[in-house]
Design a protein that fits this description.
- It contains ten helices and twelve strands.
- The radius of gyration is 23 Å and the shape is elongated.
- It is 43% helix and 20% strand.
């Protein structure tokens, strides 16, 4: 997920978010600010972290009024600190007030994901293992959340169901077994598609390898079994481990030697980064 891809998808989703928050009018703002009035407000960081989503933050305001000016003193991926002034938004005060919550919702959520991802990525520094996200994302937020993972130093797994073949337990059950599932996937998909298989036992690892799987996902296996699985896969398939991986428990996986570690927690459990718009005044 890169910045261009995000921009191509962002406007429609941001407008949906704005319509969710403003169904007909912003009654509060219109009651205290009946006429246009130029003003500015400061973007303040209230917690240390990694900022992500500044472009989305800015786009909320320019979709409401293209004349709005956003002057930022940092960029996505920068480490920010509590009390830091990240920029100023200038424009019609009614726009600043009506767009505030939606803009901050995006920026806080994306920055929280980037911060949490950066903390885990730091733990993997120096190893060959790459950190991946998953499809465990908030509905209609995937493009933003996966972008934030990249900003935080992680990598994107498949974007959606059209993006790659991943045979999980229920696919294997539907097909009648690992071998059958891999064979059916090979027959259906283009030869350029890699086939990943989720396994839970060493016997399933062996079966997936014999069937010609390209990537073996070791799901909720013991550390000892995962080390043996990596040995079995050496030179035959790439390996990925998954299953309730968090910042608190990833250390146990560092010496296994897998190519990838995937963590749904990057997107479903990262707390927001506390940011605020303060000191609104007319100019």
């Amino acid at each position: 997920m890169n910045e261009i891809t995000m921009k191509m998808n962002a406007d429609e989703l941001i407008l949906l978010a704005l319509r969710e928050d403003i169904t007909s009018e912003d009654i509060t703002t219109n009651s205290v600010m009946p006429e246009a009035c130029p003003g500015e407000v400061e973007l303040i960081c209230k917690q240390d972290g990694v900022v992500a989503g500044l472009g989305v933050f800015a786009r909320v305001f320019t979709l409401l009024d293209e004349k709005t000016e956003i002057c930022l003193t940092c960029k996505d991926g920068d480490r920010v600190t509590k009390g830091q002034r990240l920029g100023v938004v200038r424009g019609d005060i009614r726009v600043l007030l009506s767009g505030e919550r939606t803009a901050l919702n995006y920026l806080q959520r994306m920055s929280g994901i980037a911060t949490y991802t950066a903390e885990i990525a730091e733990l993997l520094k120096g190893s060959k293992t790459k950190l991946l996200d998953t499809r465990k994302t908030t509905p209609n937020m995937r493009v933003f959340e996966k972008y934030a993972v990249k900003v935080g130093g992680g990598n994107n797994h498949r974007y959606n169901l059209s993006d790659g073949i991943l045979l999980k337990d229920n696919h294997i059950g539907a097909a009648g077994g690992v071998k059958q599932a891999v064979q059916m996937a090979k027959a259906y998909a283009s030869f350029v598609r890699k086939i990943e298989v989720e396994v839970e036992t060493l016997d399933m690892v062996r079966e997936a390898l014999e069937a010609g799987a390209d990537i073996i996902m070791l799901d909720n296996m013991s550390v000892e079994d995962m080390k043996e699985a990596v040995r079995l896969c050496q030179g035959k398939a790439e390996t990925e481990c998954s299953g309730n991986v968090t910042r608190e428990n990833i250390a146990r996986l560092l010496d296994i030697g897998v190519d990838y570690i995937s963590s749904g927690a990057l997107t479903h459990s990262a707390p927001i980064l506390d940011l605020s718009l303060k000191n609104l005044h007319a100019i």
